[in-house]
Amino acid sequence: MTSDPSCPLCRADGGHLVVRGARWRVVLVDDADHPAFTRVIWNAHVAEMSDLDEAARRELLDAVVRVESVQRATLAPDKINLASLGNQVPHLHWHVIPRWRDDRHFPNPVWAAARDDAPEQAGVRSAAVRARLDAYLAGLRRAFADALAPAADRR
Fold this sequence. Notes:
Elements: H1 8-11, E1 16-20, E2 24-28, E3 38-42, H2 54-75, E4 79-83, E5 93-99, H3 121-131, H4 133-143, H5 145-148
Antiparallel strand pairs: 1-2, 2-3, 3-5, 4-5
Helix pairs in contact: 2-4
């Protein structure tokens, strides 16, 4: 596996590790405003989707869609943002971020400045999402159970 010792996503998990596959991992990001902010990170150090062969791209995007599906089922967001930017950390990873109309940044990206008129409900929403994190994490582990099982168990 390719690694870059100067890359923060090669040196560490990049968040709270939820599941690790052979070629990718799913981590929960520590974000006060968006407590279910999740990353799907390719383990090898590559910068772009086109660095992967077709099977690897399908595998990575399948992981992203599984995370999105669990977010929808357990958290019922108004929208889910998917982003693969890598401008600051050029290591292939996808952000999967559940969004609500009353969050502090909506409808702008989570990286934008918080709205001046952010509703008081935003704090209530964050607390409600935090209260569902255990269910969300359990849902992620169930969703990836087949991907993590030894090959002999998948027949």
